[in-house]
């Protein structure tokens, strides 16, 4: 049996360094997109924001994320992963620092849009680069780790917000928004000296450069014959154009990735962005600090639930994990919808249960988009799937405060359960099993992209439907 140069390689010191460096992006993403959840309380009073403006300020980062991922995914496929690897971080840092001088609602919205665009750019950049270096035996767990680190960033954001609110009051909201620049500089330093993806290099015909990068990472002299084998494995029937994602099997996969990601993201972003507001609607004291403390507990649930998910994704597979997470997550939200006036302990128990279940399957949001597409269009696919997911997430996040005010807490929770159940239905028909496959094998389609209608149910490479 032939040993694949990358898929069957050992985890080297460079791999571990790359994991830390690439994880810095999701950490910043989680931090920057979540710190606003605490900061909005102070910003709303200071800037006199009405309900609609408040909703837009919370959701506009997702709008920016839509454009950032949609635009910079194809750019990353065209000019390379390494070039874009640090540029997006510089934008995050500068926009975060600029938050110190916000004095109008439109400035808050504009800067949150820019930060969202930089976050959206990082999704296809960092996840594609890491996916294309990691061996297959640990690929699912390591790519899933990025989702865990995203959650860690969100938890740290609320800890920082809680500390600043407790010491300096809600008026410290500008410093909360600017604090992301500190972490951004740390991540920028960690990313210095990264190697380009060898899969991307061979896809562009730059075999000698790929040989040099892989030799340095593996600590031995890799031959051009080995690189040629990698190039043959990475060969795609298409030219690697963005338009390939808009037809046939690739389109079905993009829509699947975008929709299931959206069904995970809407309730998750609602909790991250408006968690303290939702808890206050469900009977918490309303003093600010207690709701934030409750939010920290829920965010810890998101982190803890992802840890067994990282194991199950390799031992049980991608498809069982996504189906179970959606089904049982929906069941956890139903009691909150049926009894919205429940005691605080009841609310926290079922919210915490939902966070555990949701986060176990949520690790797949980076795994599936990176595994189901070839190297030539991988970043574009991740970017497009991200954009699709953020359309629904932005609309959903914008409507949360409106729904709480007009429909009530119970109905809002039942809507969240329905969205989660929709994710189960989508995954039941379209989720494929890619566990323990080479990256090239997982990305293979059962027919040429132009041959199949979007609604066709396919069998994956290992027989999963």
TrEMBL record:
Give the record's membrane topology.
Multi-pass membrane protein
Q: Which UniProt keywords apply?
A: Membrane, Transmembrane, Transmembrane helix
Q: Name one Pfam family in it.
A: Sugar_tr
Q: Where in the cell is it found?
A: Cell membrane
Domain named Major facilitator superfamily (MFS) profile: residues: 18-435
Q: Mind listing the GO molecular function terms for this protein?
A: carbohydrate:proton symporter activity
Instruction: Read off the InterPro entries from this record.
Output: MFS_dom (IPR020846), MFS_sugar_transport-like (IPR005828), MFS_Sugar_Transporters (IPR050360), MFS_trans_sf (IPR036259), Sugar_transporter_CS (IPR005829)
- Which chain regions cross the lipid bilayer? 18-42, 54-73, 85-103, 109-130, 142-167, 173-190, 250-272, 292-309, 321-339, 345-368, 380-400, 412-431
Signal peptide residue numbers: none
Which terms in the GO cellular component ontology are assigned?
plasma membrane
CDD domains, alphabetized:
MFS_SV2_like
The superkingdom listed in its UniProt entry is Bacteria
Tell me its family: Belongs to the major facilitator superfamily. Sugar transporter (TC 2.A.1.1) family.
Q: What is this protein called?
A: Major facilitator superfamily (MFS_1) transporter
